[in-house]
Amino acid sequence: MIIGQSPGRNPSLPALAGLKRRIYPQPVENSGPCAKIGSNLSELIDPSGRRPSFDGAAWVSQDGKFWWNGTAWQPIVQPRRMPWGIVGFVAAILVVGALVVHFFPRQIIDTRQYGATNLRIDGPTLIEFDYRAQGSCNNLTFIYTFYDAQGIKVGEVVDSQSRQVNDGQSYHFTIGLSDPIESSATRFTATPNCS
User: Fold this and answer.
1) Is 130 within 8 Å of 112 (Cβ atoms)?
2) I want to staple 129 with a disulfide (CB 3.0 to 4.6 A). Which of 7, 28, 119, 144 is the partner?
């Protein structure tokens, strides 16, 4: 007697006659990425229908395009190659740009100093300075303002002598004043006046 069976009842085919037999779809051999899987991994079939090989980390198809992740075959992603043509082209552009900058330098910002520089008091009535013209002028005069050591204005002289200067040119002026400079003056400024 079988456990769970009532006594006197014989399991026979007529007792199961009322049940319909279910038909389950059977796997089709070599049906793409989900190829037939055997009950044992040694019976594993790759998508191309051949036996895969184990490379130490995973099962890999013989054509090397798929690997087995335990449930399905996954495509092996090939590492992208370095686009050496583009790298070479960019490097060539950079080299040409560096050569152009090196051999044909162009000053972007004008760093030259314009106006009066190197101002010096040479004596009680003598001063000298350098002047770089920022524009051309046919009637240039200067106003000289004198300061003492504390920076207090001690005198001012308007130059009556007219000068002609050209744009971007540097000039050296030595000026003899008619009246003596205040003895406490230690420095001066020369303000250009073009009329």
Assistant:
1) no
2) 119
